[in-house]
C-alpha cells in the first residue's frame, strides 16, 4: 500500500490555552511542536498564526516567522491556512500564500461552523485558487460537506483547479458533515480517481476516522486544531502524542509512513 502521510494540525484558530494548556501559540512554540511531530512521524504541519495573546491573525510576518522556526528544526511540509478564523476578510486570509509555502488550504464552500458561519464566497475561492497557482503553492481542498466536493469536481473539470487534486475531508464540524464512517465512505466514492485524500475527524471522530483512512489507503490529519483529547476525559499531552498514536496504528496495520520528501512526490510538490 502507498505510504501514509500524517498531517499535524498544530494550533488552529479556535482552540484556547484554557481548553488545551499545551497549545503552541508563538512561532517558536509552533516550531518546537512541529519538530516533535516530525520526529513522531508527521510529514506535513498545518499551521495557523496567533498573536502572543492567542488572537488568530493572518499576518504574513507571523507566518514567515513560523515557517522559519519550523524549517530550522526539521524537514516537514508547511501548509499554511487560508481559512484563518471566522470573520476575516479574503484579502487577510490570502496573505500567507504570498510567502510561497509548499502548501495552503483552500476551503471549497461556506458552512455553518458551530455558532458561526465560515464564509467562502465563490469569487473569493477563485481568487485563492488563482493566488496559489501564481505562487506555485499546492492547494489542499477542504471539504466540510458534500456540495463542496461537487464544487471541487466541477472546478477541476473547468480547469479552475489543477489535477491531480489533494483533498482534506473534514468530518464532524457542527454544521458540516457528520464524523461517521458512512460520511467518509460517501465522500471517498465521489473523489476523482487520481485524487489523494486525507481525513480530519473532529473531536471524538478523530481516532476512528483516522484508523479507517489508514485501512482505506487514505492519509490522516490529527492535532489540537481538530481535537484536544487523547481519550474521553483525558487531554492529550502534546500534538506529537496524537501523531505517535497514528504512527503506531499504521505500523500495526501495515502502512509505512511517508517522509516529507516522499509526501512531496505523492502530492506533486516540486
Ligand atoms: N478556522 C476555521 C474557520 C483552514 O485552515 O483552512 C477554518 C479553518 C480552515 O481552519
Ligand atoms: Zn486550519
List keywords for this structure.
alpha/beta, two-stranded antiparallel ribbon, binds zinc ion, eight-stranded parallel beta barrel, 9 helices, 270 residues, TIM Barrel, binds (5S)-5-amino-3-OXO-hexanoic acid
What does this structure look like?
The chain is an alpha/beta fold and 270 residues long. The protein has one domain (6-267): TIM Barrel (Alpha-Beta Barrel), CATH 3.20.20. The protein contains 9 helices and 14 strands. The longest helix is centred in the first third of the chain and has 14 residues, at 27-40. The model has no long low-confidence stretch (mean pLDDT 98). It binds (5S)-5-amino-3-OXO-hexanoic acid (KMH) and zinc ion. Zinc ion binds next to loops.
Compute the CA-based radius of gyration: 17 Å
CATH superfamily: Aldolase class I
Shape: globular
State the oligomer: single chain
* CATH architecture assignment name: Alpha-Beta Barrel
Q: Which structural class do you get from the secondary structure elements?
A: alpha/beta
Number of helices: 9
Q: Uncertain segments of ≥5 residues (pLDDT<50)?
A: none
Sketch the topology as an H/E string, one letter per element: EHEEEHEHEEEHEHEHEHEEEHH
List the helices and strands and how they pair.
Elements: E1 6-9, H1 27-40, E2 44-47, E3 49-50, E4 56-57, H2 60-71, E5 77-80, H3 90-94, E6 103-107, E7 111-113, E8 116-118, H4 122-134, E9 138-143, H5 146-158, E10 166-171, H6 181-189, E11 196-201, H7 206-216, E12 219-222, E13 229-231, E14 234-235, H8 239-252, H9 260-267
Parallel strand pairs: 1-2, 1-12, 2-5, 5-6, 6-9, 9-10, 10-11, 11-12
Antiparallel strand pairs: 3-4, 7-8, 13-14
Helix pairs in contact: 1-2, 1-8
